[in-house]
Write a structure and sequence with these properties.
Length: 158
């Protein structure tokens, strides 16, 4: 498998951990979103540097949650490999930012982009029947895990 020397910043709430109940406290975390553990392993196997990029502080409880849920990562809220002259800013350097509250800028400010911003709802926003959706996502995650492992076994590109 070809190694990719890239860095991804991954949000915590709503991406790794369920956030349908919103913020519950500094060291109170939602259940792992199905597939997050496998995704982190796949990225590590492909050579990615993973930074957990969250408004939460890097507490022992957060690290314990990541370990308990088998989330592979390199750093929390820091990129030691960032160029020295860019470390004074708040933004951490990365190739990709994965966030439940992010949008992709595609090179133009357009009416539809403004509308998308104005109407944006994070996928982690509380929805009716959340438990059933989580169970369905978990089943889909298990199937995805099986397919991913099969794909990795034959060293194909995923
Ligand atoms: Mg989030």
């Amino acid at each position: 498998m070809a190694k990719e020397n890239k860095t991804i910043c991954i949000d915590f709430d709503g991406v790794l951990a369920d956030y349908s109940e919103g913020y519950q406290g500094k060291d109170k975390f939602g259940e792992m979103i199905p597939g997050a553990d496998v995704a982190s392993q796949v990225l590590k196997d492909k050579g990615w540097t993973i930074i957990i990029y969250t408004t939460r502080p890097a507490t022992a409880a957060l690290k314990k949650w990541l370990e308990k849920n088998n989330i592979k990562y390199d750093y929390i809220n820091e990129n030691p490999n960032q160029p020295e002259d860019s470390k004074d800013g708040c933004k951490i350097a990365a190739d990709i930012y994965l966030d439940d509250r992010g949008m992709t800028f595609r090179g133009q400010w357009t009416d539809w982009l403004i509308r998308e911003i104005a109407e944006f709802q994070p996928c982690s926003a509380k929805k009716p029947d959340q438990k059933k959706q989580m169970e369905k996502a978990y089943d889909e995650g298990k199937n995805w895990l099986k397919r991913t492992r099969e794909a990795l076994a034959v060293d194909s590109c995923i």
